[in-house]
Amino acid sequence: MSADTATRGAPAPGTARAGWPWILMYHSVADPGDDPYGITVARDRLDLHLSWLRRRGLTGVDVGTLLRARASGRARGLVGLSFDDGYTDFIHEALPVLRHHDCTATAFVLPGRLGGSNEWDPEGPRRPLMSADDIRRVAEAGMEIGSHGLHHQHLTRLGDDELRQETRGSRELLAEITGRAPDGFCYPYGVIDARAVEAVREAGYGYGCAIVPGRLAGDHALPRTHISQADRDLRLRVKRLRHRLGR
To answer: Which residues on neighbouring strands pair with residue 208, listed in sequence order?
Structure first.
């Protein structure tokens, strides 16, 4: 997905994001040199980000853990970590860094493209996606598995049957793979409308991750902060402040 893709519907003036937990959005952890979309971070940059959180008394956790802690009033000091698309580099590059920092994360995967690649990105580069065995390995490592739909499609452009397959169908497939139906859904491209949000809710998900959901913000359309290779101390401080201010 493109980092600068906007959600459908601009945020309402003064929309309060500050009331929502801070969730960071990653994608691929690999060499960022060939990355036309700005969605790849190097392993050492991810390490820098997690170290930055630690120095501020913050701990990265998967989104499900974050929301459960929030519901019980125990979310202070927790930041959500999410990785979209289900690239295999999560296993070899991100997972060791997460373990080193005692963090968990949510991997939003595509059960309709098992062992495939990111064919939805016309400019490439091609990156391999997790297989069913890879998904089980990530779940067994203590990470949360969430759905990113079946095929990484714009949900707002789909008919009713396709929309149900992307939401409910992907949840059922992941339940078969892991033995547990996922609680979280992540909207491909971050693009949402009221119909897509309702489809995610009706499919049985407990939460949904968007990017800038605007007036649709809620448990099934949570805002997230895009994180890139360019983010170091100053940019991270600005992004944290913008989240606190609801921007």
So the answer is: 185
**CA dist., res. 102 & res. 121, Å (int):** 32
Going by the DSSP 8-state scheme, the letter that residue 35 receives in this structure is -
What is the chain's length?
A: 247
For 146, counting Cβ atoms within 10 Å of its Cβ (0-12 exposed, 13-18 middle, 19+ buried), the class is buried
In the block, tokens 């409910």 appear at 168
Distance CA 82, CA 230 (A): 18
Residue among 15, 22, 4 at smallest CA distance from 222: 22
Q: Give the separation between CA 107 and CA 130, rounded to whole angstroms.
A: 10
Q: How do residues 141-175 score in pLDDT, each as one tens digit? A: 999 999 999 999 999 999 999 999 999 999 999 99
pTM above 0.90, yes or no: yes
Rounded distance between C-alpha atoms, residue 225 and residue 80, angstroms? 10
Alpha helices in the chain (DSSP H): 43-55, 63-71, 89, 95-100, 132-140, 160-164, 170-178, 194-202, 233-245
**Distance of CA 41 to CAs 4, 62, 142, 212, Å?**
16, 18, 22, 21
